[in-house]
Design goal:
Elements (H helix, E strand, L loop, with lengths): L3 E6 L3 H16 L3 E2 L8 E6 L4 H20 L4 E6 H4 L1 H10 L5 E3 L7 H10 L4 E3 L20 E5 L1 E2 L10 H5 L3 E2 L2 H13 L4 E5 L16 H11 L4 E5 L8 H9 L6 E3 L7 H6 L6 H14 L4 E8 L6 H14 L3 E6 L17 H25 L4 E9 L7 E5 L4 E5 L8 E9 L4 E4 L1
Parallel strand pairs: 1-2, 1-3, 3-4, 4-5, 5-6, 7-10, 10-11, 12-13, 13-14, 17-19
Antiparallel strand pairs: 8-9, 15-16, 15-18, 16-17, 18-19
Helix pairs in contact: 7-8, 8-9, 9-11, 12-13
This protein binds 5'-deoxyadenosine and iron/sulfur cluster.
Length: 438
């Protein structure tokens, strides 16, 4: 009988993309994916370490799997991703949840089939945590989640060491894929009916710095636009420190480069930005926004903001609110600061209480919501291009998709098919989405 597996993925698009590689391997091994944990022979959790909450959730779930394993001794349990790349966490899991069969880190994905076999053959927990990132391995199998949209890695790892962030410790140093490999992958996607790619990197703007060949992110973006035939090009994440005017021009001049930039600011106070080791000031950031809007006036801007970084005073927070007001983002992802063991910020004095963090978070959210709605209202009455994805989860009579500026549109119309670019007239604006008809 064919073996079945189920996989839960936490965290960012990198993790989603890694999960697609693991699915590719499992296809080759003859496994079938199921949503139903009860019928799975193999349970995989691809974990995230960026915030404590996600880690706590995973530990809770692993605990519950122990009971399942008692009833089903042949069940194989594998935990991978950023959380277990922290040796301390891997040891904790091995000690407290000895029924886990396999623990493997972010640098061990390429040997997943071997590791799985070892785990099947062994009574003990198999632990594979490469400390060093090693060379990029090309040509791994992949089964993509979507038929029309694809994630394409361009860099792995991060060199920035923002003081709150665990990523450089669990994803290693920054490595860029060769432009030829990226172009080849995207050409193949376009030939197979894909319309959209999102170029992925922790800091896409530093693409190419480690390559022998002189190539930067703007060069890569222009090549993807001109050589691959893909209809929509997105990228994430941009670091404000490395964002150049050449890049803004390339985005504005590009034909298929989407008019959306995710530009995490993290905080609006220079004192906090310095403590965060972000490498730019509030003034630099605001100039950057102005420069981007000069080149591309309709460019949607989104951001990430951390609330309650150690030592954040009411005055510092007011500077964040003021910056959010000045920039007027289309959307913002806001996070409560979460201390990550091993990062400098976790050791900083004046950690902020949960109560203050939550109160500030609410004020920030209320302000951002006003801006999101304001941007969305500007679109009412306009015709926009939407990539139709499928029926809406909440109302199956309505279709859902995204604009080039990455806004969700729920719309009605005749002959709508997933994977089609459709012109939709916007009829109503909500804070998080738009309504329309084609
Ligand atoms: N606490 C809260 N938010 C964090 N992020 C990264 N590390 C932390 C942390 N320790 C946020 C940043 C980043 C996003 C992906 O997650 O805003 O841009
Ligand atoms: Fe973390 Fe900063 Fe690197 Fe982003 S740029 S992954 S926030 S260290």
């Amino acid at each position: 009988m064919q073996k079945k597996y189920t996989m839960t993925v936490f965290g960012c698009q990198m993790n989603e993309r890694d999960a697609e590689t693991i699915r590719g391997f499992l296809d080759e091994l003859g496994y079938e994916e199921t949503e139903d944990v009860a019928e799975a022979d193999l349970i995989i959790m691809n974990t995230c370490a960026v915030r404590e909450k996600a880690e706590a959730k995973v530990l809770g779930r692993i605990g519950k799997l122990g009971q399942l394993k008692e009833k089903k001794p042949h069940l194989t349990i594998a935990i991978c991703g950023c959380m277990v790349q922290q040796e301390k966490v891997a040891n904790y899991i091995r000690k407290n949840f000895p029924f886990v069969d396999l623990i493997f880190g972010t640098h061990n994905i390429a040997s997943f089939p071997d590791l799985l076999q070892q785990a099947l053959d062994s009574e003990e927990t198999v632990v594979a945590l490469r400390a060093e990132e090693g060379k990029i391995v090309e040509g791994l199998p992949v089964r993509r989640t979507d038929k029309f949209k694809a994630w394409v890695n361009i860099t792995y790892g991060c060199n920035n060491f923002c003081s709150y962030c665990i990523v450089p410790y669990v994803r290693g140093r920054e490595r860029s894929r060769l432009p030829e490999e990226i172009i080849r992958e995207i050409k193949t996607l376009a030939e197979n009916g894909y319309l959209e790619v999102t170029l992925l990197g922790q800091n896409v703007n530093s693409y190419g710095k480690d390559l022998a060949k002189q190539v930067d992110f703007a060069d890569l973006l222009a090549r993807v636009d001109q050589e691959t035939g893909i209809k929509r090009i997105r990228f994430t994440t941009s670091h404000p420190r490395d964002f150049t005017e050449k890049l803004a021009r390339t985005i504005a001049d590009g034909k298929n480069i989407c008019e959306h930039i995710h530009l995490p600011v993290q905080a609006g106070s220079n004192r906090i930005l310095k403590l965060m080791n972000r490498g730019y000031t509030r003034e630099h950031y605001l100039q950057l926004v102005e420069m981007i809007r000069q080149h591309e006036p309709d460019c949607a801007l989104t951001t990430d903001i951390i609330v309650g970084f150690p030592g954040e005073t009411e005055e510092d927070f007011a500077a964040t609110l003021d910056l959010v007001d000045q920039v007027s983002y289309d959307a913002a992802f806001t996070f409560l600061y979460s201390p990550r063991s091993g990062t400098p910020a976790a050791e900083m004095p004046d950690q902020i209480s949960d109560e203050i963090k939550k109160e500030r978070f609410q004020r920030l959210l209320a302000l951002q919501n006003k801006h999101s709605l304001r941007h969305n209202k500007k679109l009412v009455g306009q015709k926009v291009e939407v990539l139709a994805e499928g029926p809406s989860k909440t109302d199956p009579t309505v279709f859902t998709g995204r604009t080039r500026t990455n806004k969700v549109v729920n719309f009605t119309g005749e002959n709508i098919e997933p994977g089609k670019l459709i012109t939709v007239e916007i009829t109503e604006a909500r804070t998080w989405s738009l309504l329309g008809r084609s």
